[in-house]
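Help needed: design a sequence for this.
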């Protein structure tokens, strides 16, 4: 599989934090992602009251939308600003507490308890900390993860998913020799080999 010059590209946590600080967040969708609306029935599969995971959640508006439907939402994001912006933009009261298992990490939880957002590296999470999930909405995580870390990311996701869980994954298709990413190009063949 040819992913061009992207294979060795690395975006540091500092670069992601800087994107949030500078407001360079073209990946954020103010109205929510149209593909989640289109395929919501596939993700939920007739189930209600699900635990839904948002890897690299940013301030995704879909988190409130799904919580308002009665689901429990858990997200992880390196940028504390993104998480605080999420709560502020939706006028949601929240409390903040340290995560004892992860040095320097915080959990921001809506006072209703339906939304828990972890501020840390996704790789610091485990099912012993966040539990397991019935559904995953990956609208920009796999394409944001450094190409060399994809297997690590997918392995983590597999440990966080319940047996009958579903994952809705959004990728982008383009010539990887013309754009250095992120978002990174993840060919369908690689998605199949990663997820089996």
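Sure. Designed sequence:
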């Amino acid at each position: 599989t040819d992913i061009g010059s992207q294979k060795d590209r690395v975006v540091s946590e500092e670069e992601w934090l800087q994107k949030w600080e500078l407001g360079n967040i073209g990946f954020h969708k103010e109205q929510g992602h149209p593909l989640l609306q289109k395929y919501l029935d596939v993700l939920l599969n007739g189930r209600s009251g699900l635990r839904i995971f948002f890897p690299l959640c940013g301030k995704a508006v879909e988190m409130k939308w799904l919580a308002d439907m009665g689901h429990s939402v858990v997200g992880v994001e390196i940028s504390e600003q993104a998480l605080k912006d999420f709560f502020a933009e939706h006028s949601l009261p929240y409390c903040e507490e340290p995560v004892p298992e992860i040095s320097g990490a915080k959990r921001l939880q809506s006072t209703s308890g339906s939304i828990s957002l972890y501020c840390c590296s996704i790789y610091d999470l485990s099912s012993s900390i966040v539990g397991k999930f019935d559904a995953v909405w990956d609208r920009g995580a796999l394409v944001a993860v450094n190409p060399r870390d994809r297997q690590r990311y997918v392995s983590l996701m597999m440990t966080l998913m319940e047996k009958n869980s579903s994952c809705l994954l959004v990728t982008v298709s383009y010539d990887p020799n013309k754009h250095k990413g992120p978002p990174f190009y993840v060919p369908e063949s690689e998605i199949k080999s990663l997820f089996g």
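The first strand starts at residue 51 and ends at 54.
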